[in-house]
Each structure stands twice: as C-alpha cells, then as structure tokens.
Design a protein that fits this description.
alpha-L-fucosidase; 11 helices; 5-stranded antiparallel β-sheet; EC 3.2.1.51; 22% strand; Immunoglobulin-like; 408 residues; glycosidase; single chain; 8-stranded parallel β-sheet; 2 domains; alpha/beta; TIM Barrel; signal
C-alpha cells in the first residue's frame, strides 16, 4: 500500500538541507563542541552572541527554488541542544533568549508556505545540552516529545519531521509509538523520517516511518519493504565534508559529482537532500549559493521528469546510463559525453557515442535532447527489444554533465 503523502513526497524529488546553530559562529562544523572537547559552559555562552542578523528565510527559499528544491529541511535543534524557535518555557536555551529574540522557525515555515515549498523540520534526538539525556532518559523523552509537540501545534501545516540521533542509544526504548502517534494526531500528513545513521542505512525502525535514509550512501536500490506500507527512500550529501559551516574545509565536491548524485538518486527512485551550512549570522555562504544556482541550471534543463519520472525496466549497457518513464514517454539519462570541437580544437565529442538500451518494446519515432532539442539518429530492433542511439557530443560552449533525451 502506498499512502498519498508518500507519493507526494517522492514527487518532491530534491530538497535543500540546512544546518544552522550556535556552532555556526565558530565555523568549524556542527560537531565542534564534542569533537574539539569544548567546555560546555563556555560553548553555551555562544547563545549570548547569536544575533541571526542576516537570516532572511525569503532569500533562502528563493535560492532553494533556483536549485530546483521542492522542500527544505532546517535544523530546529542540533545535538548541541539549542532551539531556533520559541519553546514556550520548556527551555531558555533557545533563540528567544538570545540577542536574536526571534522565532526563526516560524519565519522559515511562513516563507516556505508563501513560496509553495514544503517545510521540513530536523530535530536532533541525541542531545548534549540536556542533563536528562544521561541522567533520566525517560524524562528526557518526555522533554523531547514536548519540544516536538510545540512544533506540531503552533506552526500550521508541517511537510515533515526529520529525526537524527537514535543511533547514539541503539538498544534504548525511544518511545517512538508515543512520539510518532502525537505527530500523527496533530500533523497527520507530515512525513516522518528518522535518520538511521551510517551503519543502518535503509533500515525501517517503526511502522510510522515514511522514508528510510542513506546518509552519504548511494545504494543500487531502495528498500521499500519491511512494513505493510510502501516506504520511500532519501539520500543526502553536503557540498564539502561538513554539514555545519566549516570555513577551512576547502574540499568542495565538483559540480559533476553533485549532478551525477542527483541523477543516481532519481535512477533508484530516491529523493536527495543537498546540504549547506549557514554562517553564524544566518546567511548561505556566497560560494555555496553559487553552487546551488549552478546545479539549478541542470535541474531546470531536465525539468519535470526529474520529479515525476518513475523507474522503468529498461537496461542500459553503459554502466551509468539509465531511463525513467513519465506519462507515455521514456527519458534516457546519458553520462560521460564529450564536447564537439573541430580539427583545430579537438575535445573528444566530434563523433557520436553509440548507447544501447534493452527492454524497449514500443516503436520509437523520434529522439531529441532536452537541452537543445537536437534530433538524434537511432536504430531499433523491436523483436529483440533493443535501441541503439547515436548520442552526440555537447555543442561547443556547453557541458551538461548528464544529458537527457526524450523518446517519442
């Protein structure tokens, strides 16, 4: 059984993941408190300099739209325990008790709704701030549920909840039926995701889970089984090696890797999150913003098939190529093409690259590239269900990394 909320979630396709908290002021990654063994009292004084003066959710939503993201996941609280919203007296370790004096999550949700982008809320379940986490776990779980209930009851319709941290106490009873049952009561159509961690990718931990995670993993297929209902899948990647901003991490992924990762996610029917860490004052760093806009050129070129294309039993003989089906049309995703030059500037794409696909049993009349509407030569053997496409190289001045052809 596939629930409508899960179908709708899969059609979102691409999301923007945002990490932001007190750690952002240090610019050394979201785990800096623990990994750098910082004194807890000194670290938590960062609340006193948290101004959020450059946090403009409308600008962030606009950048997400340029990326092609249909939803945004924002950290409401990371493992440091600092809340970006008004906890209504539950804790004074929140944005309302900082110089920001703003409910940043309310502003974020309103900006998303105005732009018709789904707001998803990240909630860390593993918590370094609350003493209850180690001293009285059951009371901590009540505290955790109360913090989520505030989000459920006071912010209108939420697209989904993205939990992270149960992997820290693998054997504990996290009272998930209580937590998820409360969410279902107030937000019946919210997607529930609980990040399984690096060692349990794709594991379904509770019947209410709607999507399994593959953090930094790219599986050959998604585990949709394990429950009575169909469960979606989601991958995630960050632009360098950190999720929270790390000013000295220069190891940024090549745009090719990001584009190919998005394509692979859609090949196996998974959503994908592209992560950025905001600055300490709440802005997307200029380099990251330019990356997102650059990737958005590709997502815009591919268009609706990136969101609504479905897995089809077409086999490509090239190890990376694949096909998706949308409506009555097939779309071929073709990798590793070169640029066309001439006898003076030889760039490797002067000759067509023949790509063969099996299990195509309908007559094809026309094949065109989506990026320039160029018609491609092809040959088809219907009795053998094979299609050979002369995949031409990129026009000089362009390189889309992954090229998409529509079969009519």
């Amino acid at each position: 059984m596939t629930l409508q909320r899960i179908t709708d979630y899969e059609n979102l396709g691409i999301g923007l993941f945002i990490h932001w908290g007190l750690y952002s002021q240090l610019g050394m990654g979201e785990w800096t408190e623990l990994l750098h063994k910082r004194d807890k009292k000194s670290y938590e004084k960062l609340k006193e300099s948290f101004t959020a003066e450059e946090f403009n959710p409308k600008e962030i939503v606009n950048t997400a739209k340029k990326l092609g993201a249909k939803y945004i996941v924002l950290t409401t609280k990371h493992h440091e325990g600092f809340y970006l919203y008004d906890t209504k007296g539950l804790s004074n370790f929140d944005a309302l008790h900082s110089p920001a004096k703003r409910d940043l999550i309310r502003e974020f949700i309103e900006a998303c709704n105005d732009a018709k982008i789904k707001p998803f809320l990240y909630v860390a379940t593993y918590d370094w701030h609350s003493e209850l986490y180690e001293k009285d776990f059951n009371k901590y779980l009540d505290y955790l549920q109360s913090s989520v209930e505030i989000l459920c009851k006071n912010y209108g319709k939420i697209g989904g909840f993205w939990f992270d941290g149960n992997w820290n106490k693998k054997e504990a009873d996290w009272h998930l039926n209580d937590l998820y049952g409360m969410i279902r009561h107030y937000q019946p159509n919210a997607i529930i995701i609980n990040n399984t961690g690096l060692k349990n990718r794709g594991k379904v931990s509770n019947p209410e889970i709607d999507a399994v995670t593959y953090e930094r993993g790219f599986p050959p297929k998604i585990n949709h089984s394990g429950q009575k209902k169909y469960v979606a899948g989601e991958m995630s990647l960050t632009l360098n090696k950190h999720w929270g901003i790390a000013l000295n991490d220069l190891d940024y992924k090549a745009p090719r890797e990001i584009i190919e990762s998005i394509a692979h996610a859609r090949q196996v029917g998974a959503n994908i999150l592209i992560n950025v860490g905001l600055t300490g004052t709440g802005k997307i760093p200029a380099l990251c913003e330019n990356y997102l806009i650059l990737i958005g050129k590709w997502t815009s070129m591919v268009g609706n098939v990136l969101y609504y294309g479905k897995i089809v039993d077409v086999k490509a003989r090239h190890p990376k190529d694949f096909a998706l089906k949308m409506n009555d049309s097939l779309y071929l995703f073709i990798f590793d093409l070169q640029i066309r030059g001439n006898e003076n500037v030889v760039l490797g794409g002067e000759k067509s690259s023949t790509r063969i696909f099996d299990n195509i049993n309908k007559k094809i009349n026309k094949i065109t590239w989506l990026d320039n509407n160029e018609t491609l030569k092809f040959s088809q053997n219907i009795s053998h269900q094979t299609l050979a496409v002369d995949a031409s190289g990129f026009d000089y001045g362009t390189n889309w990394v992954v090229r998409v052809a529509k079969l009519t």
